[in-house]
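TASK: fixed-backbone design
INPUT:
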């Protein structure tokens, strides 16, 4: 299909505007579009402008790529160098705010360990190669003359969206492969499955700012949720007068838990019991109707016993009664969230269903929980990933093997549990290509390593994972020239590979920039939220494009709920909680010094790993903060220093994610441990997601006092508490003033 005679519908599909947008009349596009009609001279957007004044900074809009949330950025550039990042106030995702990971994106860009030239493996060693040679080598393995069976080609990626995602899809289609595996360790895939099954919408919008009471069951929405900065901006509204109340139940205190009015430590795996216990109190004490629920669920609720449930969960009956009072006082103005440690149990799916029962009882569906936007351009939509993508990739290797594998964004050799044997299995794939900024555990096993541009140097469009009141497409533009001449953008690489497969369609685009600018020249004007034509320069200046969306409605559909309890294990009595945190995330930021030295929000530890254990367990083991312990599962063992902490259930032990790298640069290697290594491979019921928080372990003392560096080592000041708190009632009496 050549561009000279491509019809309007085909052109819109090529540009990403197919689907809802392509079927809408009044697009103002001609019936036949040729490349010549939209032809322009393509020059670098980064050529110094005449108005640039030495010593005076210029701000450019872009998008943060430090996590899948897609927050808007403003980057300050002076003398051609990016010096500072802030949030873009025009982005409805983060409203001008930016977390520490976003701020630290500068150090990823300027990191001295960035790869600078393509490399190929010869005689067991990586040696320099030109880009032309690299692309020819890829073509030998996946080109039309390679004889590759598409089923034996795979692409492993982190979350993707926008035009990059579309081009990757098109490349996979051209190769005849369906093996695109999206992998994220920090994810909400089980909750998405519950939402789809119960509400018919995998990503409903939780309107935190409109709620008066929130119960979080394992969901660290302020720290490691789907869009923590967006949640934080809504949380500010939630905490304004009239001040909302927050209850958090989880086995280990998170950043969200630290902000709660009531924090409750729960025995891992009993979250569903807690949810139905709250439902029982709502039905019996507060006389809330349950007749809208199926008989099986009504029976499950009414048979709960408060005292027995308190024994099972470790959460006192008084706390359950208090939470039920908050929720019953705010019907239709409350939210019950599930996620993280609750969904990461073997029974995580049913934990999620039990939480959704509460939302239905409270009348939250359609009020504080509303349908997601019907995004008009499905080819560009966000592709969320979880651990199922990792398991499917391993399965593809096991089921007859793969000939070629591409890796971009994901580092599965680091994130895969050792029990999967991925490192050894990769040796069976003859040709492995890594598109990466940094040498990591996966690229060290690749046959071809291609250095890509940083987000500060590259073009992209991003569809945020969580949308606000209006749906947007976010723009990512280079804010400075590439630091290293021999690095290239992922979009350009994929476009070059597509040209080799379909030169008639893609051959006229000199670069990914040319492709994107042409796409926006053809954006259907009537699909903009304000109904006005979208120009390329306006999109770059503002950083986001608000798009017109369709309406959807939620309709709760509950069948039954089961709350199977975790099995007892005398040999391995504790549950391991591999804790993600705002900072190192899943380990991708361990090579950024700013984030290594940023104190953990709870323990205040820097540059290291630690294990959080309850004082009762510490007393049994005869250890104190700084001593080392050995944590053993059926899959292996790790040695780590102890942080004795009351904010964890006695039956749990928490080790943060992010450390334990063995090939990720000078700032990451040799620091701490990686708890993912010793996880078992059990999956969450009804899904193919790893049960990340169900691995059972035992623990023993390893050695005496070691150095555990913390930013501050006490939580009192001259014998007085460092923070004073007041109840919501007292807060309201002051007129909402702290």
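OUTPUT:
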């Amino acid at each position: 299909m050549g561009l000279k005679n491509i019809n309007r519908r085909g052109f819109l599909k090529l540009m990403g505007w197919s689907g809802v947008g392509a079927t809408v009349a009044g697009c103002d596009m001609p019936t036949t579009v040729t490349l010549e009609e939209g032809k322009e001279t393509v020059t670098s957007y980064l050529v110094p402008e005449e108005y640039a004044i030495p010593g005076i900074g210029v701000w450019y809009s872009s998008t943060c790529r430090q996590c899948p949330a897609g927050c808007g950025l403003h980057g300050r550039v002076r003398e051609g160098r990016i010096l500072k990042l802030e949030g873009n106030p025009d982005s409805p995702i983060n409203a001008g705010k930016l977390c520490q990971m976003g701020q630290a994106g500068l150090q990823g860009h300027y990191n001295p360990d960035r790869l600078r030239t393509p490399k190929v493996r010869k005689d067991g060693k990586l040696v320099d190669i030109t880009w032309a040679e690299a692309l020819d080598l890829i073509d030998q393995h996946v080109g039309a003359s390679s004889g590759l069976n598409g089923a034996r080609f795979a692409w492993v990626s982190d979350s993707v969206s926008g035009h990059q995602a579309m081009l990757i899809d098109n490349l996979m289609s051209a190769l005849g492969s369906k093996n695109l595996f999206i992998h994220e360790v920090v994810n909400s895939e089980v909750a998405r499955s519950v939402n789809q099954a119960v509400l018919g919408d995998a990503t409903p919008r939780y309107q935190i700012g409109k709620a008066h009471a929130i119960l979080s069951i394992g969901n660290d929405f302020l720290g490691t949720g789907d869009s923590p900065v967006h949640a934080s901006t809504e949380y500010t509204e939630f905490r304004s007068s009239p001040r909302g109340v927050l209850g958090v139940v989880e086995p280990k205190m998170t950043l969200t838990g630290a902000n709660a009015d009531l924090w409750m430590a729960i025995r891992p795996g009993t979250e569903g019991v807690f949810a139905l216990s709250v439902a029982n109190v709502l039905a019996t004490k507060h006389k809330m109707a349950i007749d809208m629920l199926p008989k099986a669920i009504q029976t499950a609720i009414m048979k709960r016993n408060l005292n027995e449930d308190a024994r099972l969960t470790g959460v006192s009956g008084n706390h359950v009664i208090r939470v039920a009072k908050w929720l019953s006082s705010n019907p239709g103005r409350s939210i019950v969230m599930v996620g993280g440690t609750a969904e990461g149990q073997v029974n995580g799916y049913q934990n999620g269903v039990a939480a959704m029962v509460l939302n239905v009882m409270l009348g939250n569906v359609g009020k504080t929980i509303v349908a997601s936007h019907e995004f008009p351009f499905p080819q560009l939509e966000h592709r969320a990933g979880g651990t199922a993508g990792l398991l499917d990739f391993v399965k593809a290797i096991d089921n007859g093997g793969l000939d070629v594998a591409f890796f971009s964004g994901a580092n599965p050799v680091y994130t895969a549990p050792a029990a999967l044997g991925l490192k050894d299995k990769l040796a069976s794939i003859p040709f492995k290509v890594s598109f990466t900024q940094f040498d990591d555990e996966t690229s060290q096993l690749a046959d071809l390593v291609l250095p890509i541009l940083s987000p500060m140097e590259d073009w992209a469009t991003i569809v945020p994972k969580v949308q606000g009141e209006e749906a947007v497409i976010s723009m990512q533009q280079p804010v400075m020239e590439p630091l290293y001449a021999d690095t290239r953008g992922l979009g350009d690489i994929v476009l070059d590979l597509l040209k080799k497969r379909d030169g008639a369609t893609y051959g006229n685009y000199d670069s990914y920039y040319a492709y994107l600018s042409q796409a926006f020249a053809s954006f259907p004007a009537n699909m903009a939220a304000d109904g006005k034509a979208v120009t390329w320069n306006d999109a770059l200046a503002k950083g986001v494009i608000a798009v017109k969306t369709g309406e959807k409605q939620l309709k709760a559909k509950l069948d039954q709920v089961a709350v199977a309890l975790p099995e007892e294990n005398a040999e391995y009595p504790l549950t391991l909680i591999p804790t993600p945190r705002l900072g190192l995330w899943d380990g991708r930021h361990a090579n950024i010094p700013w984030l290594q030295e940023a104190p953990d929000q709870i323990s205040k530890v820097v540059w290291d790993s630690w294990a959080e254990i309850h004082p009762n367990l510490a007393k049994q083991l005869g250890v104190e903060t700084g001593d080392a312990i050995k944590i053993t599962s059926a899959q292996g063992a790790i040695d780590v220093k102890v942080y004795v902490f009351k904010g964890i259930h006695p039956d749990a032990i928490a080790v943060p994610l992010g450390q334990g790298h063995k090939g990720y640069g000078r700032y990451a290697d040799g620091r701490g441990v990686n708890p993912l290594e010793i996880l078992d491979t059990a999956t969450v019921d009804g899904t193919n997601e790893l049960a990340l928080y169900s691995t059972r372990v035992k623990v023993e003392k390893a050695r005496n006092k070691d150095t555990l560096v913390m930013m501050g080592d006490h939580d009192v000041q001259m014998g007085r508490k460092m923070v004073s708190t007041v109840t919501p009632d007292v807060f309201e009496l002051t007129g909402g003033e702290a």
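COMMENT: The domain at 3-112+457-483+508-546 is CATH 2.20.25.90 (N-terminal domain of TfIIb).
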